[in-house]
Every structure is written in structure tokens, then in C-alpha cells.
Specification:
Blueprint (H helix, E strand, L loop, with lengths): L10 E7 L6 H11 L4 E9 L9 H30 L6 E7 L3 H12 L4 E6 L4 H6 L2 H8 L4 E5 L9 E5 L5 H12 L5 E7 L9 H12 L3 E6 L7 H12 L3 E6 L5 H6 L3 H8 L4 E5 L1
Parallel strand pairs: 1-2, 1-4, 2-3, 4-5, 6-7, 6-9, 7-8, 9-10
Antiparallel strand pairs: 5-10
Helix pairs in contact: 1-2, 3-5, 5-10
Length: 286
């Protein structure tokens, strides 16, 4: 279990980067976000240092120290330049290196040991069919991280967060809606809850449901009960709502305890959407 004692009041957001152009969207989003909330950003670079068979331990230690210093310097320069190009003061952040063969596993372990991160914010490039099958770093974090993950498309350019599209199944709406409202409130963003009805279901009165939600969560929520196209997947049905509601961000909850076999037979809705959405995707674990 993460250590949650003496947790700082400000949000702490883990922002992975690989120093590539494609990873800048996640950094830019995190920086803009930090201007609207009291957030400390931790920019992290995952590195893997291999020892050549012929090297002595002393040679390897010197090589490790050199590589760590070099990569840490590159990380700081990379982040500093992004702040400069955005014309913003570089503050309330830190940089760190972690080592690991697989970035997603290393990030999960680092966040678990730290115990005080509230979100992970990272870029996603999408993926071809082979990578989708085996998972990308972002996809793997979405389906396994115990911390909410923000997946920012590589081509995304930051816009004010004014409207959230939250796809809810209504089974555990009280716990889920509280998290969505807590995220939306600092942005003063409108929340649109889309619920796809199952066959034979009787839809509730949206106006009555909205009044109940407003009273319960002290925040306005627009309710949309929709009959899905049964010939399409959940992801495709949800994508059809995007041009109608024009969300700034899509919010989902995903079960991180599913087995690998379950994931192969029924890929995570959130992971699948992370490959195709043009809007940022916020995924909470459940």
C-alpha cells in the first residue's frame, strides 16, 4: 500500500518524457495545468544502462555516473527550453532520473514507492496493430496504474479545459463522480455524463437526475442517456458523442485488476481510446 501519511496539500504530478518531440504535449499540458492549480510537477526520464561483458566493476560505475550526469543535464535542458518557448516562468517543478528496462514498469514502481503522486500526465503517440496487442507504455499504465493517468495526444495543442465528457456506467457513480468533480472544479469545467443504456433498460428522467447530482455533489452535471449502436464497440459509440458534445477532455474509469487473458479477450475501453482520441483522456483506476 502507498504511504499516504503526511501527504502534501498541493497536487504532485508525475510527467514522464523521453526527450522526444512527441513527448512535449504531455509536458505542455502539465505546465499549463500547474498555472491553474497548486501543483508540483516531477519531470522524469527513464534510462537503462547496460554493462559490457569486458568491463570491470570500477569501469562500469564510472560509466553509470557519466551517463546519469549526461541524461540528467539533458532532461533539465529539455524541460527548461519548453518553459522558455511557452514564455512561462520555470517554477514549482523538479527533475529526476529512474532506471528500468521497461518505462511503464519503472514508472509504476517509482510512483508506488514515492506514495504521494496524484496523477501521471504523459504523451501518447497512438500505436499500430502489433503495439496495440502487446501494449504501449501509456496503454500499460492506463490498464495497470493505481494512480489516475492523463494521456495527451502527441499532436494536441493546449486549450482551456471547459468541458468534460465522462462516460459512466452508473453502478458506482457516487465514488466516481466525486473524483470527476474534484478534477473539474479548479477548471470550472462543465461535466457531461454520458451513459449508454443496456437492452431493456428504462432511462431515468435527465432533469430529475441532474437535480439530484447537483444537490449531492454541489456541482452542475448534464446527463445524457443514450441508446448505443449494438453493431459498434463502446469506444466507437463514445467517439460518436464527441462531435456532438465537443469535450475538452474525455474521462473514463477502468478496472486495473483484470488478468492478461481478460485484456486480450476484451481490451480495455480506456486503453483502446488512448490510441484514437484527439482529446486528452483522463483515466481513473477502479
Amino acid at each position: 500500500m502507498p504511504n499516504i501519511k503526511n501527504k502534501p496539500a498541493r497536487l504532485r504530478v508525475l510527467v514522464p518524457t523521453d526527450l522526444s518531440v512527441a513527448s512535449k504535449s504531455g509536458i505542455r499540458f502539465a505546465i499549463q495545468w500547474s498555472r491553474q492549480q497548486d501543483i508540483h510537477l516531477v519531470f522524469v526520464l527513464v534510462i537503462s544502462i547496460q554493462q559490457a561483458p569486458a568491463w570491470s566493476q570500477d569501469t562500469f560505475k564510472k560509466y553509470v555516473a557519466h551517463q546519469q550526469a549526461k541524461n540528467f543535464r539533458q532532461l533539465k535542458q529539455f524541460v527548461k527550453k519548453i518553459y522558455e518557448r511557452m514564455g512561462l516562468p520555470a517554477r514549482n517543478y523538479s527533475c529526476t532520473l529512474i532506471e528500468g528496462m521497461s518505462a511503464d514498469i519503472a514508472l509504476q514502481e517509482y510512483s508506488r514507492q514515492d506514495g504521494h503522486f496524484d496523477y501521471i500526465c504523459m504523451s501518447t503517440r497512438g500505436a499500430g496493430k502489433l503495439k496495440r496487442f502487446f501494449g504501449t507504455h501509456t496503454g500499460n499504465l492506463i490498464t495497470h496504474s493505481s494512480i489516475p493517468v492523463l494521456a495527451i495526444p502527441a499532436a494536441y495543442r493546449y486549450r482551456p479545459i471547459r468541458r468534460l465528457l465522462y462516460a459512466g456506467d452508473m453502478f458506482d457513480y457516487q465514488k466516481e463522480m466525486k473524483k470527476v468533480v474534484d478534477f473539474a472544479r479548479p477548471f470550472k469545467a462543465a461535466i457531461h455524463l454520458v451513459h449508454f443504456l443496456s437492452e431493456g433498460a428504462t432511462p431515468l428522467n435527465p432533469a430529475v437526475t441532474e437535480a439530484v447530482f447537483r444537490e449531492q455533489f454541489s456541482y452542475p452535471v448534464s446527463i445524457h442517456f443514450k441508446w448505443p449502436d449494438e453493431s459498434l464497440s463502446f469506444a466507437h459509440n463514445l467517439e460518436k458523442q464527441i462531435p456532438l458534445l465537443h469535450p475538452s477532455m474525455v474521462v473514463l474509469f477502468t478496472d486495473i485488476h483484470r488478468s492478461f487473458l481478460q485484456r486480450l479477450l476484451d481490451p480495455s475501453r480506456a486503453e483502446r481510446l488512448s490510441f484514437t482520441l484527439k482529446q486528452p483522456l483522463l483515466v481513473f483506476p477502479k
